[in-house]
Every structure is written in C-alpha cells, then in structure tokens.
Amino acid sequence: MAKARRTNEERTSDPAAQQMLIRADELGLSTAFSRAEDMVPCNIGAAGMCCKICGMGPCRLTKDGQTGVCGATLDTIQARNFIRSIAAGSAAHSDHGRDMAFTLKAVANGETEGYILRDVAKLRTVAARYGIKIEGRSPSEVANDLADLYIAQFGQQRGKIVVTKNAPPKRQKIWEDLDVVPRGVDREVVEALHRTHIGDDQEPTHILKHAIRTALADGWGGSMIATDVSDILFGTPAPILGQANLGVLKDDMVNVVVHGHEPTLSQMVVAASQDPEIIAYAQAAGAKGVNLSGICCTANEILMRQGIPAAGNFLHQELAILTGSVEAMVVDVQCIMQALVDLASNFHTKIITTSPKVQIKGATHIEFDEHKALTIAKQILIVAIDNYKNRGKTHIPQVREDLIPGFSHEYINYMLGGSYRASFRPLNDAIMSGRIRGVAAIVGCNNPRSKQDYMHTHVTQELLKQDVLIVETGCGAIASAKLGLLLGEAGLDQVGPGLKEVCETIGIPPVLHMGSCVDNTRILTVLTQMVEEGGLGDDIDQIPAVGLAPEWMSEKALSIGAYCVASGAYVIFGGSSPISGMPDRVSDSDIVLKYLSEGWEELFGGKMEFIQDPEEMIRKTLEHIDKKRAALGLPVYDAQRFGKSGDARMLELEKIPAMDRRQAVYGTAAD
Ligand code: BF8
Q: What is the rounded CA–CA span in Å between residue 278 and residue 381?
C-alpha cells in the first residue's frame, strides 16, 4: 500500500512554507518536500552498508558476517563511507576558506575591484597571533603576509596547520599525543581518498582516526581561515536589525535572492544594489528599486553584516521561486538544489550560477571574478532588472519576523564587559553559579525528511526553559529567527529564570546568532576563551556544553560534528545515522557506531551520537551538561534559585510604595 503523504503542516512548521506548498500543489509542481516522499531512502545506503569504491561491486552487506567481494567487512565499509563524507565536507568548507585567502591576497595587492580591508583592527590582531610583524607596516603589507600564510596552509605537506595553535594548550597536546594534528588541508583530504581506495586502510578505527585529522583540517583550518578573512574584508559582525522569511520579498521591487555560501560575490551584490545608477535603472523598469535577500549561509553572511534580510533557510530555496516574485536567484557554491532550474522554468525567474566550480544545466552562467567584482555584480543586477517586465502574478506570504543577528565572538567578549572590561568572566560566572545551566550550540541544515524547523526550534525552546544559553549558526539560526527567538525580548517569558536574568542584564537575546556554517569556528573560539577565562576547567571537554544538529543533511555537517568531537564536545545529530546498521541489527557488533561514541569519548572527551527523538536529544543534552557541572564541582542546577532579580522583579518592586521596598527586598524595615 502506498505510504500516505504528509499534510503541509506535517512537512513544515513554518506558516510561510505551508502557504507555498499549497501553491506548489495548485500548480502541480514538485519540491524537495514532495520528492522526499516519492523517493524512499535506500536503507542499505543510508546505513553506510553499500560499498561502491571499485568495479567488483557495488557490494551491499545485508546479512550477518557477509563481506564484499574483496573481503571488506561491514565496519570497514561504514568507516570508509563515513570518512569520505567528512573529506567532502572538509573540502567544501576549506575550499571556501582558500578562495577567501586568495581574495585577501588580491585585495592586499590592489588587484580587486570594490573590496577594502574593512576591519584593520582584526587584521592586526590575527596577524600578530601568527607572528606576522605589524608595527610600522601598512594594512596591505600585513594582509599580504597573512594571505600568504593562509594560502600555504592548504598545500602544506609537513608540520601543523598553524591555525590549530588557537586551541587550548591541553587540547593541542591531546591531538599531538594521538597524532591527529592536521599537516595541511589538502593533504588530509587527499589522504582520506587514498586510504579509502580499494585495498588500502582496512582497520575501521584507524580510518576513523584519519577522519578526525581530516575534520580538524576543516574546523581548526579552512573554516577558521574563512571566518577570519571574511571579517577582515567585510567587517566583524555586531548586532544589527534584520528580518527573516519569505515575507521579505517585495511586490513592487526587483527581487534578487543570493543563495549559497561565499560572501565575496554577495557582498558586492549588496554594494551594487545600492548604486544610484542601478536604482535608477530599476526605477526606469517600473520597480521601486532592487530588493536583495538571501537563502542559506549566504543569507547569514549578509544578514549579520549589513542586515540584508534572509528569505529563508535551505528548504526555502524552491519556495522563494514559487512566489513568482524572484527576478533572479544568484547562486555560488554548496546546498544549491539542481531542481531550481526546472522549477524556475515555470516562472520568469532566472537562475544565475557564478562560481567557476558550479554550473547547472539550463542556468545562466555569469562567472564571478574578484578582479572585476563590482562590474560583474552590476551586470547580474541588470539581468535581473531586465527580467522584471516578465513577472506574472505573485504570491508572497506576508510572513516575516525581526531578528538581531551578529554575535561574533569578538562582540560577545565586548558585550560582557564593554571596551575596558571586555571579558568572558560574566558568562563563566553565570555558568559557575548555575544561573546559566550550560550552553548548547544548535546548528546545521533543514532536511525534508523531518518537519522543517520543528526539531531545531522545539529543542531550542525546551532547552531555553532549562536555563541553557543557545548559540546558533547556519540554517538552524534562520529557523529560530523565523520564530522570533533571535530578539532581545524574544520569548523571555518562556526562558528559565536564571538565563532570563542574564539576558535582561546584558540586553541579549537568549539565542545568539553567530553566523554561517563556516562560522561554527566562532563557537570553538568562544569555548577556548571560556577555558582561558578560568573556572570551567582547562580544556573544552570540561565545559558544560553540547552541540546539536537536529535536522542535518549535508556532508559538511558531519565534518563539523567530527571536529567538534575532536575538540572535546558531545555532538548529537538528529534524523538518520549514516553508519548505523539496519535498525533491527544495531548491536554490540556495530563497531563503528559504538566507536564514534565510546571510542572517541575515551580519546577526545567528546562523542558523536545519532538520536531521532527530540525529547531524547533534550534529555541527553541536559544529562551531559549536569554531568560536566558535577565533574567541575559546580552547584547542582536548581531552577528555583534564581529569577528574583531582573526586569520583572523591578516592575514588581515599583508597585510597592517606596518606604516599604526595603522590607520587601531585605526583610528589614527602613531606618
Ligand atoms: O553550510 S546549514 S543546509 S546552507 S550545510 Fe547547507 Fe546545512 Fe544550511 Fe550553510 Ni550549513
């Protein structure tokens, strides 16, 4: 019997998305939501039990004790499939970092158009950290040297990726002792592919050791480089007002949606959209101007720096086109569905590919080149404006929400103490006292196999009630934004009493938007700075913190998870596990699955688990946080202990006549 199709309310918790799915049904068009139902996942492949790395297969291991033609066991095949995913994820993030480093080099040498070194203070701080001389030198000279150093990290053959020195000393020692320090980004990715070629590394735990090294080359390598260079070129984020959801599209303007990951092009499109000539050109075409918005991590990059609205997260890319209001969707790399071109053919929308690495059959290709960045960005906008006249009837859901993104680790440090007393001390103290029970980083994708945004926002809301401070990146951050959780006053009535006091005192939302997926490295930096501040142990694995990717789907997410484990974090993935055996076969013989949890925890103090039930995710998160609190000798979390100060208490006290207040506060009468 055919499986019943989900209702739109079961497919997504976002009302704007629900409206657009009704529209898709009216038009008879497919989306990832409907295709996920039509395409039943292969449970052999899903569990990593299919080996297709040579021409003797593919071998599908479905029976106990079965091996591939070459004799490969299930554990070896699962470990090989897993490391190949991590290598792809690490490559994607790191290649983004490489391009950023090349752009930095070109900007330093005056070879680009439109870019400047926007955050010279960060340039100097970062360069000094790596021993680059900064005194008496121009920003361009320093940037040139930093770019050379960064570029060298990709092709380096021996030694250590220099970025790893940002980790706590004890963590670096663990990596050295276990021989997993990445030598060069490219080398680790290449070696992952070599080791998994037919007839190479066949000891699962040995393969998984290199998976850690490959992932570290991402988190403490390519991704960290990407984040730092983005800040230097485009500015270190600080809180700014933005908006999210499809309601940011405008009926009376030329809508251009930038989608993908690298900020180099999108930042120039932002600049070009504000150019008076472009605005005049749009007005001559009958529009009020150009309305720019973002999807996926490109959205996060321009949202947290310029407040450019986010049209949505991963599963919104098709929905934006279904509004009929998008003149051009401009894409670069990663997370771009091939289905966009076919879907767009039902509307006037042009899909414009821009990366030399990414073309899609049927799309318009306008190749980006940083040496003529502004010119190309304007050229793209002119194509979009010229397309405005072809627009038909629009269906833009009037659903949007305000948000405050932009909590870089630099800003968090500043907000906790101001310019003169910037410090992580107040955050550490709040955790040590129990006002904040712990920290959860909720990150990662949407996955159409689960209800869009629900896992993210449900886990987020429940942990907030338990006084857990939340930091978010990627599509998870946009999910919370759409629900209004990224506002200063956001849901403070649903936040635990201690966390509420902290949020009110500092004036922050209970959920901090820290950027795109490469910016998960900002979370590593925050954790490192919390260690340095003292009181929460001398390494990341001692901090009461958990990482969660409730709706993961990309290989990048697996790489992020692995480098967080190697850094000492407990990481919980929702949805399906890429390395579990058949559900009825999970047992002690599931060596790989057990190794990622128990084996890695023994080595790194962090572990990776795949948990489908959100309530179980919440339970395990709190259990881990409380276990870490106990290990540090911190007071047992007590929900009743705090919450007697803050804005609500002030309002209560205001109602009490002044002469009676002392009695109310201190229990003693006024003199
Ligand atoms: O890098 S969260 S769906 S957009 S992979 Fe992709 Fe996942 Fe979104 Fe950003 Ni990250």
A: 8
Question: How far, in Å, is the centroid of ligand 1 from the Cα of 321?
Answer: 19
Bond into 237 cis (ω within 30): no
DSSP code per residue over 181-249: --S-HHHHHHHHHHHTSTTS---HHHHHHHHHHHHHHIIIIIHHHHHHHHHHHH-------EEESGGGS
Give the distance (Å) from ligand 1 centre to CA of residue 295.
Answer: 10
User: Which three-class secondary structure state does DSSP give residue 146?
Assistant: helix
Q: Which of 531, 476, 149, 115 is nearest to 296 (CA)?
A: 476
Residue 559: name the closest of 78, 76, 82, 47 by CA: 82
Distance CA 513, CA 487 (A): 10
Nearest atom, ligand 1, residue 93 CA: 1
**294 CB under 6 A from ligand 1?**
no
Amino acid occupying residue 209: K
Q: Which residue has the tokens 């999910």?
A: 479
Q: What is the pLDDT of residue 421?
A: 73
Q: Nearest CA to 103 among 276, 332, 425, 319?
A: 332
Give the N- to C-terminal CA distance of the chain in Å, as an integer.
81
- Write the residue with the smallest CA distance to atom 7 of ligand 1: 445
How far apart CA 577 and CA 47 sit, in angstroms, is 7
DSSP letter assigned to residue 3: P
Sequence-separated (6 or more) residues with CB below 8 Å from residue 630: 636
Identify the DSSP state of 598.
Answer: I
- Which is the closest atom of ligand 1 to the Cα of 297? 9
Q: State whether the beta carbon of 552 lies less than 6 angstroms from ligand 1.
A: no
355 touches 264 (CB < 8 A):
no
Is the Cβ atom of 83 under 6 angstroms away from ligand 1?
Answer: no
Ligand 1 in reach of 314 Cβ (< 6 A)? yes
**Among 320, 263, 334, 313, residue whose Cα is nearest residue 478:** 313
Listed as ranges, residues in the chain with pLDDT below 50 are 583
What distance in angstroms lies between residue 513's CA and the mean position of ligand 1's atoms? 14
pLDDT value at position 572? 97
336 touches ligand 1 (CB under 6 Å)? no
Cα of 95 vs centre of ligand 1, distance in Å, is 15
Question: What pLDDT is stored for residue 414 in this prediction?
Answer: 87
What pTM was estimated for this model as a whole?
0.94
95, 334, 551, best to mutate for ligand 1 pocket (most atoms within 8 Å of CB): 334
Cα 517 versus chain centre, distance: 3
On whether the CB atoms of residues 467 and 498 are closer than 8 A, the answer is yes
Rounded-to-integer distance, Cα 470 and Cα 35, Å? 32
- How many CA atoms lie within 13 Å of 431's alpha carbon, on the beta-carbon side? 29
Quick one: pLDDT at residue 494?
82
DSSP 554: S
Location of structure tokens 């939302």: 509
Contact (Cβ atoms closer than 8 angstroms) between residue 432 and residue 538: no
Give the whole-angstrom CA distance, residue 330 versus residue 238.
26
Model confidence pLDDT, tens digit, residues 576-599: 888 875 545 555 568 899 999 999
- Residue 643 Cα distances to 129, 427, 432, 471, 544, angstroms: 40, 16, 16, 21, 21
Ligand 1 contacts CB of residue 517 (under 6 A): yes
Do the bridges between strand 310-312 and strand 326-331 make them parallel or antiparallel, or are there none, so unpaired?
Answer: unpaired
Cα–Cα distance measured from residue 413 to residue 72, given in angstroms and rounded to the nearest whole number: 50
Ligand 1 binding pocket mutation candidate from 443, 556, 558 (most atoms within 8 A of CB): 556
